[in-house]
Amino acid sequence: SAYDTKTRQKVAVKKLSRPFQSLIHARRTYRELRLLKHMKHENVKEFMFCHSVLFFPSLFYFHRYLVTNLMGADLNNIVKCQKLTDDHIQFLIYQLLRGLKVL
């Protein structure tokens, strides 16, 4: 995570290394950016902006950083850090299904 000084909030940063090294990588990058840009739902990360950094000498070698709002926790940490009750599991599945419904 990082701190956005303009909005004064913590944000999540995802590094996309060499997103255009092949046609498949380019399609995946485009698809992810396009989907995030159009989704507005509390169970889906909100796209904020994308930043590119070019590395020389190659004009085709650069990293793209995808910046989204920071979610309260990630599912992996929730599952590993605590024993889940049936109510927890039911709530998590409900939240996942709400997010999938948007897709």
Topology:
Elements: E1 2-4, E2 9-17, H1 23-38, E3 47-54, E4 62-69, H2 75-81, H3 86-102
Antiparallel strand pairs: 1-2, 2-4, 3-4
Give the H and E element order. Answer: EEHEEHH
Under CATH, the homologous superfamily of the largest domain reads: Phosphorylase Kinase, domain 1
CATH class of the largest domain: Alpha Beta
Shape: globular
Strand fraction? 25-35%
The residue fraction in helices comes out at 25-40%
Briefly characterize the structure.
The protein is of the alpha+beta class and 103 residues long.
Describe the structure.
This protein has 103 residues and is an alpha+beta fold. It has 2 domains: 1-71, Phosphorylase Kinase, domain 1, CATH 3.30.200; 73-103, no CATH class. The protein contains 3 helices and 4 strands. It has helices spanning 23-38, 75-81, 86-102; strands spanning 2-4, 9-17, 47-54, 62-69. The chain has a 4-stranded antiparallel beta sheet with strand order 1-2-4-3, with helices on one face. A hairpin with a 7-residue loop joins strand 3 and strand 4 (62-69). The protein is globular, with a radius of gyration of 17 Å.
